[in-house]
Amino acid sequence: MKFAALIFTIFGGDFFLKNYMEKHLKWGEEKGICKGRILLRRYHNSGAALNILNKCQKTLKVICGGMLLILGAVWFLLMRKKDNFGIMLGLSLLLGGGASNYYDRIFRGYVVDYFSFHTSWKWLDRIIFNISDLCIFLGGIMVMLKCKRGFLV
């Protein structure tokens, strides 16, 4: 039950933040927080990470929807097994973040991204994220670390 709550918390929290940024942050406006290390900025990403497949939105919707279905099925099957905290946490992060971005893709036609990091690496400064992106990234790493030779352990 705690993993389902995590999925809904990620989805709901990021949904709230995306709507807030859409309403309160003007296009092209930047606001620094955390001593300027994090920049709030409004961006619409019509593709996947770094705008990959932005010209193939229908294909992207099918791929993302299929991945969510597969991850959801694995999550459901593993839900009753004991000693799988790491894999369930990773899958829950992936599902919460993926569902939030998929919702945007279906209902808005783009994913709302709203913050970036101010670093000494200019290439990283240009990448704009949302909370769901970070959850997908962390969840993916956790799932990969818990998998060996293609089988869940």
List the helices and strands and how they pair.
Elements: H1 2-24, E1 30-33, E2 38-45, H2 57-78, H3 85-107, E3 111-117, H4 122-125, H5 131-146, E4 147-148, E5 151-152
- Helical amount: 55-70%
State mean pLDDT (0 to 100 scale): 89
Strand order of the largest sheet: 1-2-3
Q: How would you classify the quaternary structure?
A: single chain
Determine Rg (CA atoms, Å): 16 Å
The general outline is globular
What class do helices, strands and sheet pairing give? alpha+beta
Residue share in β-strands: 15-25%
- The separation of the N and C termini measures 21 Å
User: Could you give a short account of the major beta sheet?
Assistant: 3 strands, antiparallel
Q: Number of helix segments? A: 5
Q: How many beta strands in the DSSP annotation?
A: 5
The domain tally reads: 1
Order of helices and strands: HEEHHEHHEE
What is this entry, summarized?
It contains five helices and five strands; from the N terminus they run αββααβααββ. The protein has helices at residues 2-24, 57-78, 85-107, 122-125, 131-146, and strands spanning 30-33, 38-45, 111-117, 147-148, 151-152.
List keywords for this structure.
153 residues; alpha+beta; three-stranded antiparallel beta sheet; two-stranded antiparallel ribbon; 5 strands
Commentary on this structure:
This protein is α+β, with helices and mostly antiparallel strands and 153 residues long. It has one domain (2-145). The protein is built from five helices and five strands; from the N terminus they run H-E-E-H-H-E-H-H-E-E. The strands form two sheets. It has a three-stranded antiparallel sheet with strand order 1-2-3. Strands 4-5 form a two-stranded antiparallel ribbon. The longest helix is centred in the N-terminal third of the chain and has 23 residues, at 2-24. It is globular. The model has no long low-confidence stretch (mean pLDDT 89).
